Amino acid sequence: MAGDQLKRFDRWRKKLPENTEYLTSLVIDEVVPLFQERGFDRFADYAGGSTFAVGPNCIPLQRRSGSKWPTVEIAFDKRSRPGLGVNFAALPEVCCRETELGPTNIPRLEASVVEGAAFFTLCKGQRSNFDCNFGYRGFVLRPKLRLDREIAILKSLLPWLFSVLELGIPEAWYQGKPGYVDQYAFLSLGSRIFRAT
Questions:
Q1: Which of 83, 125, 150, 165 could form a disulfide with 183, with the two C-beta atoms 3.0–4.6 Å apart?
Q2: Residue 174 carries which DSSP code?
Q3: How far apart (Å, rounded) are the C-alpha atoms in residues 153 and 184?
Q4: How many Cα neighbours within 13 Å face the side chain of 80?
Q5: Residues 33, 160, 173, 78, CA torsion sign
Q6: What are the DSSP E strand ranges found in 40-164?
Q7: Is 77 in contact with 84 (CB distance < 8 Å)?
Q8: Residue 72 bridge partners (DSSP)
Q9: Does residue 117 sit in helix, strand or coil?
Q10: Could you report the per-residue pLDDT of 137-159, keeping only the tens digit for each?
């Protein structure tokens, strides 16, 4: 099933609780423009418009140039809690989607961040609980102040992320086991390189 990913996100956003809506506004107003300054954009046809490949709770950002397309998904909590994670990858020309019939090759124009060889999660570098989550869980006294701080941390990590994506994800990161491959990057067990072995 195909659809306009931007419109799906806007519809999802309208139903959010106050603090989660505040978090999405911070990301749209303060984080997305930093990506756009580096040549990334949001595309209505991201992942071929597939509602299966990317949820409405996601802001995909992609630079459609080069031999491998730098791709980032900012995924908000599916249960509408005020939190998010950031996954990133470099998509080759041919990617792979898991279907009911098994793995199927697809062009990268139809691929999401998880359908390249491997994908990584941006981390705060603390190697503690919820190191790769931005936002909060549970009760906090001043939630908007906490969210301001979390977005400030995320923004402080973007120069590192842009450098990795512009220089190319190191080949050594694809050779490791699932887990931290850098202070700020976690190699996901869900990566295709682990399904192929």
A1: 125
A2: G
A3: 12
A4: 10
A5: negative
A6: 58-62, 69-76, 83-91, 94-99, 102-107, 120-122, 134-135
A7: yes
A8: 61, 88
A9: coil
A10: 888 899 999 999 999 999 999 99
How far is residue 95's CA from residue 115's CA, in Å, rounded to a whole number? 6
Residue 2 identity? A
Instruction: Please tell me the total count of domains within the chain.
Output: 1
Q: Where are the alpha helices (DSSP H) in the chain?
A: 5-13, 18-26, 32-37, 143-167, 192-195
Q: Residue 130: pLDDT band by 50, 70, 90 thresholds?
A: confident
Domain span including residue 56? 5-195
Distance of CA 20 to the CA centre of its chain: 17
Encoding tokens for residue 79?
């249960």
Residue 6 CB-half CA count within 13 A: 7
Which residues does 139 contact at the CB level (< 8 Å), separation at least 6?
A: none
Residues in the chain: 197
Tell me the one-letter amino acid at 96: C
